Amino acid sequence: MNLTFEHLPGLSASVDDVAYDPTRPAPPDRPHPFVYHVSIYNGSKETVNIFGRKWIVRDTDGDTLVVEGDGVVGQFPKLEPGQTFSYNSYHVIKAESSATGSFFGTTKQGKPVCVRVPAFEMHPPMLA
Q1: Residue 91 has what pLDDT?
Q2: 53 in a structural domain
Q3: How many independent structural domains does the chain possess?
Q4: 44 burial class (0-12, 13-18, 19+ CB within 10 angstroms)?
Q5: In whole angstroms, what is the distance from residue 79 CA to residue 36 CA?
Q6: SS3 of the chain: helix, strand, coil, percent, to 5
Q7: CATH number of the domain where residue 75 is located
Q8: Is the pLDDT assigned to residue 128 strictly greater than 50?
Q9: What residues make up the domain containing 86?
Q10: Which of 31, 59, 72, 93 has the highest local Cβ count within 10 Å?
Q11: Residue in 44, 57, 64 with CA at minimum distance from that of residue 105
């Protein structure tokens, strides 16, 4: 069964901050950690349950990493009209990259909905 996710007017996501954070663990092949802060705002008249996310990270070397999973940082936010869910997480990259994403959920009536996360850039500091 294929679900068709539709944009719900009033449901929005914003990238509040992106920062290089060398204190985060990172593998040798992707040594640059960037913390991002995202907010999901429910400006609709519907209650929305968020159950999944998908991130697409593309770098200047031409590589693409797709990250999909259940929930948002281990949670399944329920957003009543007017509520916001904010969180932070991080991506580890090897070169300059851009990321975009989507959150997936359902309304109280079971209608599948999605909201796109605006693209953001990650520029590792120059290494001496």
Answers
A1: 95
A2: yes
A3: 1
A4: middle
A5: 21
A6: 0, 60, 40
A7: 2.60.40.1470
A8: no
A9: 6-122
A10: 93
A11: 44
